[in-house]
Amino acid sequence: MPKALVNDIEMHYELRGSGKSLLLIHGLGSSGRDWEDFVQLLPNFQIITIDLRGHGQTSKPKGPYSIKLFTHDIVSLLEFLKIQSTNVLGISLGGSIALQMAIDFPEYVKSITVINAPVEIQVDSFKMKMEALKRSLIVRLVGMKKMGEILATRLFVKPEQEDLRKMLIRRWAQNDKKAYLAAMHALMGWSVKAQLHKIKCPSLIIGSDDDYTPSSIKREYTALIPDANFIEIKDARHAVSAEKPEELSEIVRNFIANMNA
């Protein structure tokens, strides 16, 4: 499997297809393989999938990690691949990284599609501190598989989604515990809210109507980005790329086609 030496890590990536370039950035505890079904719905693109630092087949060095570090890894990979600029799509943690890329490395970013992602996570309330502590304790005390079991019932709630639940649990159990926690802590205290006005590329913010974060918050931060629009996908939760890949891929195709019209 292809790997590139970037920033003292071996970064796993896959490059497939031809056409407009589209970089896919996965979420926390995920990997590039979770885009498999989605990629099949984008036949006219050159797709770049990656495993972030600490995930999948990429190196898992000791932390701390940061959103800026993830971003720098990706830009170094693009340089290695001699890709001067690309459309960028990220979900959850990957969406936050896409925002950071558009701010810090605008020359590499043609457009961003940000799915169910925060623009900041401030652990300054009792509720947020308890939520972070709870997730950390679950991982440390009972392991990644248990964390996957909990998430599977939250993300895929329908009876017909049993296969998705089983797949998430199986793949989540394969995560390295220390790397997962380092990646989780990369989000804590991170914020680009005050910098969103710097994003100059076409931007699409996508939210699920039953995501952890309400669409009202996503609409608020969409308004802070100069050339951005918001779309809500109905009857969907956080992992909408797995729940509704057909609907999501159509939205993405239309966005990029209209942007370049």
Any overview of this molecule?
This protein is an alpha/beta fold and 261 residues long. The chain has one domain: Alpha/Beta hydrolase fold, catalytic domain (Rossmann fold, 3-Layer(aba) Sandwich). The protein is 42% helix and 19% strand. Strands 1-2-4-3-5-6-7-8 form an 8-stranded mixed beta sheet, with helices on both faces. Helix 3 links the parallel strand 5 and strand 6. Helix 2 crosses helix 3 and helix 4 crosses helix 5. The model has no long low-confidence stretch (mean pLDDT 94).
Short description:
By secondary structure, the chain is an alpha/beta fold. 42% of the residues lie in helices and 19% in strands. The mean pLDDT is 94.
The CATH class? Alpha Beta
Mean pLDDT: 94
Which residue ranges are poorly predicted, with pLDDT under 50 across at least 5 consecutive positions?
none
Report the span from N to C terminus.
36 Å
CATH architecture: 3-Layer(aba) Sandwich
- In CATH, the homologous superfamily goes by the name Alpha/Beta hydrolase fold, catalytic domain
| SS strand fraction | 15-25%
Overall number of strands: 8
Query: How does the major sheet shape up?
Result: 8 strands, mixed
Look at the helices and sheets and give the structural class: alpha/beta
User: What share of the residues lie within helices?
Assistant: 40-55%
Q: How many helices in DSSP terms? A: 10
Give the CA-based shape. Answer: globular
Cα-atom radius of gyration: 17 Å
Could you say how many structural domains there are in total?
A: 1
Run of helices and strands? EEEHEHEHEHHHHEHEHH
Read across the widest sheet, the strand sequence of neighbours is: 1-2-4-3-5-6-7-8
CATH topology: Rossmann fold
